[in-house]
Each structure stands twice: as C-alpha cells, then as structure tokens.
Amino acid sequence: MAMNNTPFPPRILVVDDEEVSRFNLRGHLQRLEYDVVCAVDANEALYLLGGQRVDLVITDQVMPEIDGLQLMQCVHESQPSLPFIVLTAQGSVESAVAAMKSGAIDYLEKPINSVTFKAIIQRALEFGRLSDENRQLRERLHDQFSFQNIITQSPAMRTVLEVAKRITTSPKTIVNLTGESGVGKEVLARAIHYASGCLPDRFVAINCAAIPESLLESELFGHERGAFTGAEREREGKFSLARGGTVLLDEIGDMPILLQAKLLRVLEEHAFEKVGSNTAIPADFRVIAATHRNLAKLVQEGSFREDLFHRINVVSIEIPPLRDRKEDIPILVDFFLEQFRRHLGKSLPGISKIAMNQLMSYSWPGNIRELRNVLEYAAIMVCDELIRPEHLRFTAAGGQTGDAGNDAIEFGVSIPAHEFSLNAIIKHALEFSLQRCCGNKSNAAALLKINRKMFYR
Fold it and tell me: Whose CA is closest to 294, among 307, 303, 285?
C-alpha cells in the first residue's frame, strides 16, 4: 500500500533472481535515499509483502517458477493500488506492452539508465499514492451512501429499499423517485448509484428548479465555443461529467416544457449533442428522476409531457413521509446524535422521554431533513445534559418557530417557600415561554394561549 505521506522514506521492494542486478538496483535506490528491501524470487517477495509496508515493487519479468507478471497479478488481488515497475532484459516493444497490460506503471530496461531512473521511480510512487487515496475515498463514499447506511424499522420503507436494491442489477434502467421534500430522495439515489457498480465519482445531481431556464440546456448538454453570446470557450455539460455514472434530475417536474422534449430524445436515442454541435455523444449513464410534485397531475395540466412521463416512469418508487413511519424516529435520533457527538465533540448523553414524545407526536412537514435540523440545534444548545423540550425548536414553512402542537410541555420550576406566589409562578412561566420561543414574544404569547397585549401586561 502506498504511504508516501508518512514521515518515513518510501520503501521499495526489489525482486530479482540475479544477484548483480539486485545489488545495482539497491545501490541506485539507496543513493536516492529510499528504504530498500530485496527478494530473490516471487515467493520471498510475497512473504515480505505480507509482513511490512511497501510503497513500490520493482520486479524482474523473467524469473523461475513465478515470473514478475504473475507476481504482480497475485499481489494486485489484495493490494490493487500497489504500483509495480517491471524489469526487462529484452527491451522489446512486445515485452513492454505485456508488462503495461498486466498492470505495471512502467518498465525499466537492463542495465538501468540512471538518467531516467529517478523520474520513473518518482512517477510510480506518486501514482501509487494517488491510487491509494482514490481507493480510500471510494471506500468512504461507499460506507457513507450505501444501503446499509439507510436505517429503518418501517415495513413500508423496507419495501422501498428492497425495490431499490433490485434496480441496482440493471444499471441502465430509469428510476423515478417521488416523495415530499426532505424524505431522502437524493440519499436513496446515491445508494442506488454506489451499489450499481457505476464509477463512484460520477454521481451528478442537477436541481432542475434551481438553474435558470436560459442556462439549463447548456448546463445539461454543455456547449461549443461561440454557440451563443457569452460562450467564449467550450464547456462540458453535466451529462458529459456523468458518463459511466449516474445523473440525478432533481425536481424534474420543474423542468421547462421545451427542454423536456430534448431530454426525451436523449433517453430514447441514448445520445446527446452539445449546444452548437452536431456531434453525438453517447449517453452512457443511468438516469434517476426525483420530484415532490405529482407528475401525473402536471401531465393533465399540460405542464409536463406525457411521453416523457411514461419514459421516466419505468420504475417508480415513492418514499413515505416521516409522519407515516414514526417508528423510525427513535433510531434516526440515535443516528443523528452520534453524528453530532463526533462533529461537535460533545458527550450528548441523549434525549429525555418527554422530548422524545414531543418528537414522536410532531407532524414533521420537513421530514427527515427537519428532524436533523431540530436535533442539530438542540445538540448545539445543550451542555453535557439530556435534550429536553425547551431545547427543541420546530420551524414551520411560514418561518414561525414554536412547539409541536398538542405535545406535553415539561415545565419544572423550583421556588423558595418564602417567595412562592402566583406572581412568581407567572414570572417563571413567562421566562420559560420566552426561552422556549427564542425570544419571540408573539410566539411566547401564543404558547401561553394569551394575546400579546396581555403578555406584556
């Protein structure tokens, strides 16, 4: 595994059955201040690779029993990012091509040319470092966006996941994800992408509602230089960037009707053209559409093409809103709080029973996204204590901040006996309501079920 970013010099394994060749290579590499280990054959090389860090292997191509190319293929089964340089005595084009096809980064002719030697070694080590970083990135992305990361106890949501998993075996099938805002359509789309065997870094999400209509065509297809006023240079579109991967057309219900016809052509012909070009580019990517709108209704209203609706509706998956699968709320709370423990560096011991009841009885118009926001605010507000109702802030679509409707309100107050009075209780109630509503007097008055004038009085 390449680890050139460690404080130790890169370690290079030299594998050659000729003693003189091993000696000369060791000398070259040590003069360049590399850590060098040597093996007389492939078996000794495999033994050394199993017990220590190695950043690069330089192996002779022709060796008894197991040759250099067979050694490389064997090692790459467990360490695919470990770079190999192959030594060859023939110096022929055929031997070089055979080495490169088998996975070698480069090859060296015997005897070693000291002029090019240093550059070849540096290039191979850099390739190994980048390959290892890419592998780790792919693993993190897979862990973050895999189906295993979508937690649920809801039978309806489990059915959704089962259908989504079956789709992954057909990477060209168009998928239409529907559901309210915040239910996790993009999360599911990414899970489908990473489980489909697509190129992991080729997931391209396009919000059709956020891009101006005049720019959306260029954003999708790209454009040639001079295709329109302001097109001073050629530009790759999102479709080009997604080749070998997945395009998520988020909020496809808001796509302009004229552009819908061009999208339909792409889906039918599996090709597209840049704006200002007549050259067809293969559309070798999966398309996932997503919307919170009722596309069938939009078809009836004439704002969405019926032929496009049927084309993208090959496999339709509706993600249920959070209010219809409240059994998921406790496990989602645990999941998000664990995230905030890591990100905020807080202990966050948990959430009180009354606060959890409040979360369970709330209608969640913003779905999982709103739940996460509510918990993140609470996690920031608390200091090594349980999250209680006063730490929860629910924001409705109109921007009003308040409680969860008919939920229980935990109002505990301790007043010294000599100060106990109705006025003292009222004072604490006013302070509590202001704190709970983040200083908003109108909301505090509404929480106490009195008008603002009485609240001031």
Answer: 303
The pLDDT tens digits along the chain (457 residues) read 444 444 578 999 999 999 988 898 999 899 999 999 999 999 999 999 988 889 999 999 889 889 999 999 999 888 888 999 998 876 666 777 778 888 888 888 887 777 788 888 998 998 888 877 766 666 565 555 567 778 899 999 999 999 999 999 888 899 999 999 999 999 999 999 988 877 777 899 999 988 888 888 899 999 998 888 888 888 899 999 999 999 999 999 999 998 999 999 999 999 999 999 989 999 999 999 999 999 999 999 999 999 999 999 999 999 999 999 999 999 999 999 998 998 888 889 999 999 999 999 898 999 999 999 999 999 998 888 899 988 998 865 444 444 444 445 666 667 787 878 888 888 888 887 777 666 677 777 777 878 777 777 7
The H-assigned helical ranges of 32-113 are 42-49, 68-76, 93-101
Tokens of 137: 């990135």
Looking only at Cα atoms, what is the longest distance across the chain?
A: 102
| Separation CA 60–CA 53 (nearest Å) | 20
The C-alpha angle 73, 76, 82, rounded to 5 degrees, equals 125
DSSP single-letter state for residue 275: B
Residue 47 identity: Y
Cα distance between residue 429 and residue 277, in whole Å: 69
CA dihedral 71, 77, 82, 88 (to 10 degrees): 30
Report how far apart, in Å, the C-alpha atoms of 405 and of each of 264, 360, 363, 434 are.
Answer: 45, 11, 9, 17
